[in-house]
Write a structure and sequence with these properties.
The protein has helices at 31-38, 41-49, 55-63, 70-82, 86-95, 107-124, 140-151, 156-179. By secondary structure, the protein is mainly α.
């Protein structure tokens, strides 16, 4: 005795026997990520140096390409920044521009900022760095002056840690700007100069 199927056959009348499988397409999270991944090593290194003037950081980030996602690239950037030596940090800090105010800021604001920068540099021996990527234009002066004043109370080692974290945040913001098509890392997402 042969046993047949105990379940009735179910057929969908509107299908012809073949089911189309949707094509799986890979889309890049950012078009420039693919270009960055494919760039010659020296070109990638030079691009990264516009984000943070640390050859050690740039080499490490460039050497770990390709990155599957923007998040992976940013995580690698953060990790490389955390691993910078004191000498690497000094080199990166030496190349950083001072945070600037909008050109139309009143004269007293520029004088106050210049005096605060001078006091900071006299105490710590390097420029003041602060990530201003998410600060509204009208709050730049107050945010920057408050940052300098509060950080002047740090001891040198504590300030080195804070400055290193600000450099990491600046590099991350500049990388995001580059991946959004700003042309190079030296422009922030809102079009401001580096450090702002």
């Amino acid at each position: 005795m042969t046993r047949g199927s105990t379940l009735p056959a179910h057929r969908l009348p509107h299908l012809t026997g073949r089911l189309p499988i949707p094509a799986q397409t890979r889309t890049s999270p950012a078009p420039l990520l693919d270009a960055f991944n494919a760039a010659p090593p020296e070109e990638a290194h030079e691009t990264l140096l516009t984000c943070l003037s640390s050859p050690c950081w740039a080499r490490r980030v460039a050497d770990h390409r390709p990155y599957p996602t923007v998040e992976a690239l940013l995580a690698a950037s953060d990790e490389a920044a955390y691993d910078l030596t004191a000498a690497d940090l000094a080199e990166a800090l030496a190349a950083e521009p001072l945070p600037t105010l909008p050109a139309d800021a009143y004269e007293a604001a520029h004088l106050a900022l210049d005096a605060a920068h001078a006091a900071y540099e006299a105490r710590f021996g390097h420029v003041f760095v602060i990530c201003l990527h998410e600060v509204a234009q009208e709050e730049l002066l107050d945010f920057t002056l408050e940052g300098i004043r509060s950080r002047l109370t740090n001891d040198p080692e504590e300030e080195r840690v804070v400055a290193a974290d600000e450099l990491r945040r600046l590099a991350r913001g500049r990388l995001v700007a580059y991946l959004r098509g700003a042309g190079n890392c030296a422009t922030s997402p809102n079009g401001a100069a580096p450090g702002t």
